[in-house]
Amino acid sequence: MNKKIIIVDDELAVGGLVQHIVEELGFNSEVFADPQHALKEILKQQPFLVISDLSMSSMSGVELLTRCKEKNSDIEFIIMTGYGTVESAVEAMDKGALNYIQKPLNLDHLRHLIKQASEKIELIGENQNLQKRLHEQDILSAIIGSSPNIQKVKELIRKVAPSDAGVMITGESGTGKELVARAIHNCSRRKTKELITVDCVALPEKLFESELFGYEKGSFTGADQARKGLMEVADKGTFFMDEITELDYGLQAKLLRVLQEYQFRRLGGNKVIDVDIRVVAATRRDPQLAVEEGLFREDLFYRLNVIPIHLPALRERREDIPQLIQHFLNLESKKNSNQLCEVDPKAMESLINYRWPGNIRELRNVILRMSILCKENMITFDDLPLSISEQQSLNSFDLSWAIPLPFKDAKEIMLDHFEREYLRQHLAMSHGNISQAALESGVNRKTFHRLINKYNISVYK
After folding, report:
1. Which in 43, 83, 123, 150 has the greatest CB count within 10 A?
2. What's the DSSP call for residue 375?
3. Which of 439, 446, 445 is nearest to 285 (CA)?
4. What's the CA gap between 235 and 339, in Å, rounded?
């Protein structure tokens, strides 16, 4: 709460007396004899309380109250009235004044009214803070899990959201980076404005400027009308750039120039456009390593990485897997009005122990598939995908079969099994997109192709 009280009275003696009482109660104050000047300062300083005379030469107390309330309805008013002006004081109450006091002033009553205004504002502030906390809890409940790793992420979101600091979200593919960006936006003061998402992998280099900054009519063939860019659409909101480290190195310089000044020109235009945006970026890479490898500009990294948030892989928060499974089963049941599926203990153990290379995205797809194909609304070990059931078998595998074999031969068999399943699962997650599977696995595309051919893996979309 702003502890400031502004006093407005063209009788300086009265203003001085009120100021003495106000400061005796521990509040900061300022006295104005001119209501016009007072109006400017009230709107600038945003005090919690104004104590104003009703009858003044250049502006009445009621008019001052009305004009202040138009800009900020939370500012409280106490109106001081002379003899015979009680009806006008009642009018001021109708227009939003907290109370009125007659002159000559009863100082004890004035003290009571000031304390009443202070208590009201404090109560409003407490209620607002409570509503904010409930709002945050509701938003953060979408981030499923209670493990220490995920609780740390939620706490960071709470701390970061109220500021405009740049945020860099890191984590493997499928860990929920966009969900975290959305939570930051929805917990911020920008929540009523746009959250614009740009996928830097999917954004063609030739369309970068026109998509982000917009263009004027006639700026290129086919530009038959002017168009706002995504940054302009995001004004007063949040701009989320996913996979920022995959952006072309030359385009990173153009982006940095805009983020330094938050100004740009549309393609083919001369007018400078100012934007007020909060930038949140995300990447599956280690951004510091990307800088060292020459893939990501160091100056852009420091511009965006003010607050780093790292999302743990699902295998690093296994205790959350049952809760996530239940959440996805509930969603599927509500979506299709089906009876809720259950997971038997053996299947649950296998799901918890699986490494989940595709993280939460892979888990959701698996749960969806099993909930459709299972019998009698019970997911059993036999319903699990081969990749999960085979890994469970390997985890409890009796290596007695390998003892008669030379170490080298046994190792080759296990390695072949690992490579085949690793490639198959990445291809399944990318729906057969070899380039994406190679990128996510960190394997050179040519090497990825060679291994596909080696194991005769079918690629389908």
Report:
1. 150
2. B
3. 439
4. 44
Cα–Cα distances (Å) from 129 to 135, 138, 165, 191, 423, in that order, read 10, 14, 21, 16, 50
What residues contact 85, with CB distance under 8 A and at least 6 apart? 54, 55
Q: Is the CB of residue 402 less than 8 Å from the CB of residue 410? A: yes
The two three-digit tokens of residue 70, written as one number: 């138009």
Q: How far apart are CA 169 and CA 171, in angstroms?
A: 7
- Write out the chain's pLDDT in tens, 461 residues: 568 899 999 888 999 999 999 999 999 999 999 999 999 999 999 999 999 998 888 899 999 999 999 888 889 999 998 765 667 777 888 888 988 898 889 999 999 999 988 888 887 777 666 665 655 566 788 899 989 999 999 999 999 999 999 999 999 999 999 999 999 999 999 999 999 999 998 888 788 889 999 999 888 888 889 999 999 999 999 999 999 999 999 899 999 999 999 999 999 999 999 999 999 999 999 999 999 999 999 999 999 999 999 999 999 999 999 999 999 999 888 887 777 889 999 999 999 988 898 999 999 999 999 988 888 889 999 899 887 877 655 555 556 667 777 888 778 877 887 888 888 888 877 878 888 888 888 888 888 888 888 887 876 54
Residue that is written with structure tokens 């607002």 in the block: 128
Domains in the chain, please, with CATH?
4-126 (3.40.50.2300), 144-312 (3.40.50.300), 316-396 (1.10.8.60), 398-461 (1.10.10)
For residue 416, count other CB atoms closer than 10 A to its CB.
12
Residue type, 109: H
State the amino acid at position 450 in one-letter form. R
Chain-centroid distance, C-alpha 28: 36
Stretch (H or E) spanning 436: helix 434-441
Q: Output DSSP code: residue 399.
A: G
